[in-house]
Amino acid sequence: xxxxxxxxxxxxxxxxxxxxxxxxxxxxxxxxxxxxxxxxxxxxxxxxxxxxxxxxxxxxxxxxxxxxxxxxxxxxxxxxxxxxxxxxxxxxxxxxxxxxxxxxxxxxxxxxxxxxxxxxxxxxxxxxxxxxxxxxxxxxxxxxxxxxxxxxxxxxxxxxxxxxxxxxxxxxxxxxxxxxxxxxxxxxxxxxxxxxxxxxxxxxxxxxxxxxxxxxxxxxxxxxxxxxxxxxxxxxxxxxxxxxxxxxxxxxxxxxxxxxxxxxxxxxxxxxxxxxxxxxxxxxxxxxxxxxxxxxxxxxxxxxxxxxxxxxxxxxxxxxxxxxxxxxxxxxxxxxxxxxxxxxxxxxxxxxxxxxxxxxxxxxxxxxxxxxxxxxxxxxxxxxxxxxxxxxxxxxxxxxxxxxxxxx
Length: 408
What we know:
Blueprint: H1 4-13, H2 15-27, H3 36-48, E1 53-57, E2 61-67, E3 82-88, H4 115-131, E4 139-145, H5 155-160, E5 171-182, E6 186-188, E7 191-194, E8 198-205, E9 209-210, H6 220-238, E10 245-254, E11 260-261, E12 264-273, H7 276-296, E13 300-306, E14 312-314, H8 316-330, E15 335-337, H9 348-353, E16 356-364, H10 385-402
Parallel strand pairs: 3-4, 3-5, 5-16, 6-15
Antiparallel strand pairs: 1-2, 2-4, 6-16, 7-14, 8-12, 8-13, 9-11, 10-12
């Protein structure tokens, strides 16, 4: 089997090319379900390195399969094994801050969650694997997935389209940038890793009027304010204290004025937890409490709840393979253990179908001021992480395909 040192050298050799790909993607971001040009660019890069692939999978998704040279026509167990590597490629509706030459050229759209990193790393990992295919058995399936940032996401559609089949993959691995981990390091967590996430849209209907005569109106601003405060008691009083839950409202729109009570107010939020039974109960309570509070205060509500992604649970065996591979590849001092987080990811759907591991790639560099969180206008990464991420993905795939979970 190829040694990790040779994979590292190849990833370093390709670092400039990986950076070029990442910066192209960063300059040309596209929102979820609109990634047609991004998909065409990924396809062109796969054509350039001679990797056959399927396009238009569940929308703009792409599936590429790279067989090891020793697997062609073989029927032994090792030769028929398959592993999937996943990268997402949609962007966010954020206006990027000035200050970098590869700034987004699409106004109001930005790769603020590192999906450009994920995709460029996977493209280079495939090139590394293709170059080294004489030294490994099995098949690597690459999942270039659209629409992670917006429910219902792209993962479920990729699965339903057969992306994990022909050949059937036995493990799925994916990585995500983490701005709290220093560049050169990676993080893993077994078991529960991320929360479920649902979106809540409430329109409070009242009766507008003059600010000087509130008794003649049914003030939706006051009703919405009461709702936001009262609904928090679902988390603080109805939830089991040992079950993590978060209810956050991040948007309030009331089209009145300083002296005008509007007819309606819209409030948008998200509910996240880690228990499926409580998840359903909590969403029902949010609806029921909203209706009751608004009615008691003279108004009404329209409540729309969009079910999002389930909780993401990393398989113990898949995480052991990936973590041990990372120790081999980077050294134990660069592999950290991570606690669960209330972030959410549609990678969770892959984890429901196959033993999977989703891990974090460190991109932080305090000395260079690369410290800003994902989903913010100043987010950026230390691009040295590209060599780490691309090489490690390739090495994890090789180790998973070897069927040997012990260190070499």
